[in-house]
Every structure is written in structure tokens, then in C-alpha cells.
Design a protein that fits this description.
Elements: E1 5-10, H1 14-23, E2 29-35, E3 39-41, H2 46-50, H3 56-59, E4 60-62, H4 63-67, E5 73-77, E6 82-84, E7 89-91, E8 96-98, E9 101-104, E10 108-110, H5 128-147, H6 152-155, E11 157-161, H7 165-181, E12 195-199, H8 211-223, E13 226-229, E14 233-238, E15 241-245, E16 251-254, E17 257-260, E18 264-266, H9 269-272, E19 283-284, E20 297-299, E21 304-305, H10 318-336, E22 351-356, E23 359-364, E24 367-370, H11 371-385, H12 389-405
Parallel strand pairs: 1-2, 1-9, 2-5, 9-20, 11-12, 11-17, 12-13, 19-21
Antiparallel strand pairs: 3-4, 6-7, 7-8, 10-18, 14-15, 15-16, 22-23, 23-24
Helix pairs in contact: 1-10
Length: 419
């Protein structure tokens, strides 16, 4: 009997998990899933952790719980430090492993476009730790203002850099938190006077959306009290200070909390393993989501530079990672069986972003939606793709409770000594 082919999947995000789920149905392979954390994270809802709507356990589920019925899947909590493509071997912290096929789905991390020194003065939003740090600083700012009302104007200033979905959603959520949810919880300050500034270097928010939706988003955010600054470049970031340049003049902005939502890049594994990478350190792959010289190595999702029909890399969204994960798994099985393979084709199912309560934008199959219908659609889609029945129920109950009570129950400060 032939020995089972060993497939290693690095990363338990959207792409990696989809690949493992599809591969596990074939009993002639054995799969090793490796991730630095012990959980799968539903990243699109991270901003709701950061703004105290949801708790971490609502959007994170232990990877072992998701694979406990997959008897040919072994889960390792470890970090891959290197890859020897010629020997078909990966290196972990204390051991090495051989593979027949490798799927790299390591995702992305926050990118400061070469200004790594800005990381000291701002917070990204790529994992639960980031979200909790933002939540702590956000909630602490309100407590500081209550203790020192004479300083409330400076303490209740928040700057978000980046006008993509993450920047738009967290700006709208902070506005809702301060203007509608906790405005009755304090006695010495009026939280509705909090100032939220959203900075975008381009001419529109949500630049990948139809421009009508971008214009709509800007108007709705401004109605919610968010100051939107377009065509504004960030020149420098220092302690609680952002230096900007725009056609309307240079400005120096102060903020108690600075959130960086302007860019991402692949984790260092690609570059460290000698891959051909682009400016965002994504591995350049062919039409089969694999490396030209090493067709047994697949790179998917945010870790890959896969060119779409327009010659541009596919966007770093969960839909791309999930489709590529299923494709990579199916392609590997076809290769093992000696069957022909077809190039990957991405099916764009649309874009959507929430602005706040009863307000969102969505474009699906050439149709655009705004307002409450788009918001309900956004809720349904995110609930549908959430992994784990318990998490779906928990999120649904929390959303219903928050909608009717204007509440945010996850307002726990983990480091009160920072006040």
C-alpha cells in the first residue's frame, strides 16, 4: 500500500481552514495544520471587539474544535521559521517536517509603508491582541476625561488612518459608541463631543467600491459626526500627533488614540524563504496559485500576489482566500490522482462595508445597495460565514441586544493601571 501523501497547511485563517476542510474528506492523505495561535479568527468583525460590541470568544474558535472530527488532520501550535523548497522541508522552532505538498496561507500583517517607527505611536487591527489594545485605550480615554473634564476635548480625539472598509467601519463604530451608546454613562463629560477624524490619501473612501457608494459613505459618516479628510497624506506620526499634507494645506492633528488602517503586507515567511515577492512581500504565484519552479508549493490569500483579469493582484479579502483554499485542495487531490488541473478563476461575489446602525453599502453582481437593506445584508453575510454554531448564536444574540438597548456589553478595561 502506498504511503499517504503528507500535506502541510500553514495558517488557520479563512484560506487555510477551507483547504483543510476539503482535503480532510480524502482519506488517502494526511494533513498537518500549523498556526502560531490556537484559534481561527473571523477578522471582518475585529473592529467590533475594538469598540466593545463583541468579546474575543465571539469571533475566535479553537482550531482543534473545528478539526476534532477530521481524523487525518493533525493540528500544531507552532511557527514556521523557514522552508527548504528543494528538500520539501519546513523548519519549526524545535523541529523540521517533510511534505509532499505545501499550502501557505499565512495571511498579512499591518504595513507602515517603510515607516516602522510609526508603529510605536499607532495601533493596527489585524488580530485579537490589536483589537483589545484599541479597546483598552479607547475606554481608558473616556475614564481619563471623566476624571479630568477640563481636558476632555484633547482626551476624546481619535484619528483613524486609512479609508478602506476597516477604517470606515471602525470610525463609524467609535462614533456610535461615543455619540449613542455611552453618552448617558458619564456625569462630568459629554461623550457626544468626541472628535473622530478619518484620513484617506486618495480621493474617495472605499476606493474599490462604485464611486456612488464612496460618496454616500462619506456623507453618512459626516452625518454621524466623523470628520473625513480626503486627498490627505500622512507625512509623520509622533506621540499622539499626526502630521498631514494635502492640497488644502499642511496640518498637525492631535489624538489620544491613533489607529492605522492604511495598509497590510504578507508576513515575513515569504521573503525569508527566498520567494519572488512583490512590494507587499506577497509571493508571486502563477495561474495555479503555485510557484513556477515548485508546483507542489501553493500560496493563497493575503500571502499571495495572484493577478486577476485586469492584471492587478486580487484584493486581500476573505472571499479570495476561501476560494483559493478550496481550489488548492482540489488541485492537490487531482494531482495525486494523476488528473489534469485547471487554472484558478476568482468569482467576485461583491463588496460590502457597514457604516453604523441601520446603514451600510454593498455591491453584488453589478447591483448597489445602501441604507438599512445593505445593513441587513451585511449582518446576514457575516453571520452566515462565521465559523461555529455557538459563535453564530452568541453574535446574533449580542447584535439583537445591542440594537434594542443601544448597549455595548464588552466594555472591560484589562489594564486599569494605565488610567
Amino acid at each position: 500500500m502506498n504511503e499517504k501523501k503528507h500535506i502541510i497547511v500553514i495558517g488557520a485563517g479563512f484560506g487555510g481552514l477551507q483547504a483543510v476542510q476539503k482535503l480532510s474528506k480524502n482519506k488517502d492523505v494526511r494533513i498537518t495544520l500549523i498556526d502560531r495561535t490556537n484559534h481561527h479568527l473571523f477578522q471582518p468583525l475585529l473592529y467590533q471587539i475594538a469598540t466593545a460590541v463583541l468579546s474575543p470568544a465571539d469571533i475566535g474558535i479553537p482550531t482543534r474544535s473545528l478539526t476534532d472530527q477530521m481524523k487525518n488532520v493533525t493540528v500544531l501550535m507552532d511557527e514556521v521559521t523557514g522552508i527548504d523548497k528543494d528538500s520539501k522541508k519546513i523548519y519549526l522552532h524545535e523541529k523540521e517536517m517533510f511534505y509532499d505538498y505545501l499550502i501557505i496561507a499565512t495571511g498579512a500583517k499591518t504595513s507602515y509603508f517603510g515607516h516602522t517607527e510609526w508603529k510605536k505611536y499607532s495601533l493596527g487591527l489585524k488580530n485579537i491582541f490589536d483589537a483589545l489594545r484599541i479597546r483598552n485605550k479607547l475606554l481608558i480615554s473616556f475614564e481619563k476625561a471623566e476624571n479630568h473634564p477640563e481636558r476632555s476635548e484633547e482626551l476624546l480625539k481619535y484619528i483613524i488612518i486609512g479609508g478602506g472598509p476597516t477604517g470606515v467601519e471602525i470610525a463609524g463604530s467609535i462614533a456610535e459608541l461615543s455619540h449613542s451608546i455611552i453618552n448617558n454613562d458619564f456625569r462630568n463629560i459629554d461623550t457626544r463631543k468626541a472628535k473622530i477624524i478619518l484620513i484617506e490619501g486618495g480621493s474617495d473612501l472605499l476606493s474599490t467600491f462604485d464611486r456612488r457608494l464612496s460618496v454616500y459613505t462619506k456623507k453618512r459618516l459626516e452625518k454621524r459626526g466623523v470628520e473625513v479628510m480626503l486627498n490627505t497624506r500622512v507625512m509623520n506620526i509622533e506621540d499622539k500627533t499626526v502630521f498631514t499634507k494635502s492640497p488644502f494645506g499642511d496640518k498637525i492633528l492631535s489624538g489620544e488614540l491613533i489607529i492605522w488602517a492604511a495598509g497590510v503586507e504578507a508576513v515575513p515567511l515569504n521573503a525569508n524563504s527566498g520567494f519572488n515577492v512583490d512590494r507587499q512581500k506577497r509571493a508571486v504565484v502563477n495561474e495555479f496559485c503555485s510557484l513556477n519552479e515548485y508546483p507542489d508549493v501553493f500560496v493563497i490569500g493575503d500571502a499571495a500576489d495572484f493577478k486577476g483579469k485586469d492584471g492587478k493582484p486580487l484584493p486581500g479579502v476573505s472571499a479570495v482566500a476561501m476560494q483559493q483554499g478550496r481550489y488548492a485542495a482540489a488541485t492537490i487531490i487531482r494531482k495525486i490522482k494523476g488528473k489534469s488541473i485547471e487554472p484558478f478563476r476568482y468569482i467576485n461575489k461583491g463588496n460590502m462595508a457597514t457604516i453604523g446602525r441601520k446603514d451600510a453599502v454593498a455591491e453584488i453582481s453589478g447591483f448597489s445597495f445602501t441604507g438599512i437593506f445593505a445593513w441587513l445584508l451585511w449582518l446576514f453575510v457575516h453571520l452566515f460565514y462565521q465559523v461555529g454554531f455557538k459563535n453564530k448564536v452568541s453574535i446574533l444574540i449580542t447584535w439583537i441586544w445591542s440594537y434594542y438597548t443601544f448597549g455595548a456589553s464588552a466594555r472591560l478595561i484589562q489594564n486599569p493601571d494605565d488610567i
